[in-house]
Amino acid sequence: MKHWIVLFALSALFPATFVAIAQDDLPPAPYAYTQLDDPVQEARALELMETLRCLTCQSQSIADSDAPMAGDMRHQVRSRIAAGEEPEAIRTWLIDRYGDYVSYSPEVSSTTWPLFVIPAVLLLLVGVVLFGRLGRRRKEGDEA
Amino acid sequence: MRLTYTIPLAVFLFILGLGGYMLTQPKDDTIPSAMISKPLPDFDLEPAMDGVEGASRADFVGGEPKLLNIWASWCLPCIAEAPQLEALKERGVTIIGVAIRDKPEDVAAFLERWGNPYTRIGGDEISSIQFELGSSGVPETYVIDAQGSIQYQHIGDIREEHVPLLLEKLEAAR
Asked: B124 at the A interface (CB within 8 A)?
């Protein structure tokens, strides 16, 4: 009883602290903070984990976050890699469940295509303008 | 001044305006699951404490549509939604719970104190069912139809005004 009163008082005074208190006290999942024995597999796991979004701390990757859920997600990634799954298959598995949002590695889709097309169009435009101007200047130079 | 020279300024003002507008929009942190209207993935969880049965996909197949409630004893909004789960149970809804990253003694103490609306409670110490469901926090509640297909996801605690909505979704899932 007392425990709860203290907790509620704390939560009112320090909302941010309260978030930290309101977490479980189970130990982290086996592979949350333990690297895989095989350095090649660990490197592949790390590469993937750096491009997966932490779902409870949404501006961090799961490799950067100490949130329990990020730890559990690292466990998923490492144990699946250890079982021989391809990193991109794991990414697809997560995108199937959370949507593109979970991945920091954007793929071309019906909503993201402008990201890929606009830079190409701009470059092309710059090229055309430059070519036109430089071409004209050269011509003028020849005439002079 | 040639008109084309004003284009960069126009682009700059557009971006500035867009930024200003977005600042006035409330931030939405919820991540909807991409699993709605897809089959419930296979899972089989041990009981979360002594004296209850665990939870698996098979428990959802057949009979009436059911609720899958993702919760935890360490989660305060889960206390807030306990009366609503109780109300749903009284309306005859079958609620199967999964306790995330929890200890059996904590689960027991929570249920002792806030009531037990569940017919079964699985324990998931590594949040694995959340990744299967596309769930990003506790509590979350899913409507599962009798074919074992996910019909609706409720993110966050169930408040009084959500009870009729969930009953409606359960009815629609028949």
From this structure: no
